[in-house]
Amino acid sequence: MRAPITAAILSAMSAPAIAIEVDGRIDAAEWQGAQHVTDFRLTQPLSREPAPQPTEAWILATPEGLAIGFRNTQPASA
After folding, report:
1. Alpha-carbon gap, residue 52 to 61, rounded angstroms
2. Measuring CA to CA, which residue among 29, 32, 37 is closest to residue 70?
3. For the chain, the helix, strand and coil percentages under 3-state DSSP, each to the nearest 5
4. CA-CA distance, 71 to 64, in Å (whole number)?
5. What pTM value is reported for the model?
6. In the chain, what are the domain boundaries?
7. How far is 51 from 28, CA to CA, in rounded Å?
8. What is the distance between the alpha carbons of residues 14 and 61, in angstroms, rounded to a whole number?
9. How far apart (Å, rounded) are the C-alpha atoms in residues 65 and 12?
């Protein structure tokens, strides 16, 4: 898992820099060009099976540094 995330960060650092507004939303226009990561795996227990709930992350270089956005899901019963 570490190698894909490292590759995503390095790839994001070479993307064109734009400003991201921190507003709790992942706006497609703002995050255009970001590295989109979806291959999250279970670590407890350390099975490395795909995560049971979808998780997405976006990594983008901005003039201020790295911007990282997450979209996590959780069942309504939890």
Report:
1. 29
2. 37
3. 15, 25, 60
4. 22
5. 0.67
6. 2-72
7. 24
8. 7
9. 11
